[in-house]
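Human: Here is a favour to ask of a fellow structure person. Comparing notes only helps if you start from a blank page. I am asking you to supply a protein in sequence and structure-token form. Write it directly below this note and I will take it from there.

Assistant:
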Amino acid sequence: MQESSSVKYRIKFSKNGAIKYIGHLDVMRYFQKVIRRSGLPVKYSEGYSPHQLLSFAFPLSVGYTSDGEYFDMALTDKVNEDEIKARLNDHMDQGILIEKVKELPEKAGNCMSLVFAASYKIRVKEKISLGDDFKEKTLDFLSQETIPVNKPKKKGGGFVSIDLKEYLYDYKFIDDRTLYICVNAGSETNIKPSFVMETILGSQGMDIPENPFMIHRVDIYENVSEDAIELRPLI
């Protein structure tokens, strides 16, 4: 049986405020309800247990805020991008806002498969005492040709040795306590922003208390070059 046609859209949204404590699965359920309430002609899968055809790019850790979250959505009919944005935002709770909507080519890959890197702002909380030379020492550390580290494995426990510099694409200080970084976010080599900052503080002999950072995701990127690293936001 031939599958019915659909139109694909990519949605960019922000997540700020108290809703940062809502986990990824709850965010997915939240959007399913919002889409139903919006009246948009969302496409459902076929079979015994139909579900909305949504694909989320890269789960955001609980406690992080973000201005650059993404999901793809299939509709049964073409709808103006501005209308999709307005209809979804009409049903949003405080803290989540649709920022952009883009219609996708028919054969576009889903946003999850495109994720290559992500950028973050990491603020060291005031409960950690930073020396006057913190910025200078941090920049010296990150400017090394290689930064060998032991990164925790995703599964099974233990560690894997990597060169952090290979997966660190950009960095700069925003203020005395806030560092901007862009790091690899691939499924195999995902670098957590907290790990980067813990590595920096550890290199300076600092003790790291519980919940030491405020972390904000700036955006998520695909790599549009086959021969080099050329990053572009998913919209």
About this structure: Residues 7-111 form a domain with the Alpha-Beta Plaits fold (CATH 3.30.70.580). The mean pLDDT is 94. The chain has two domains: 7-111, 115-233.
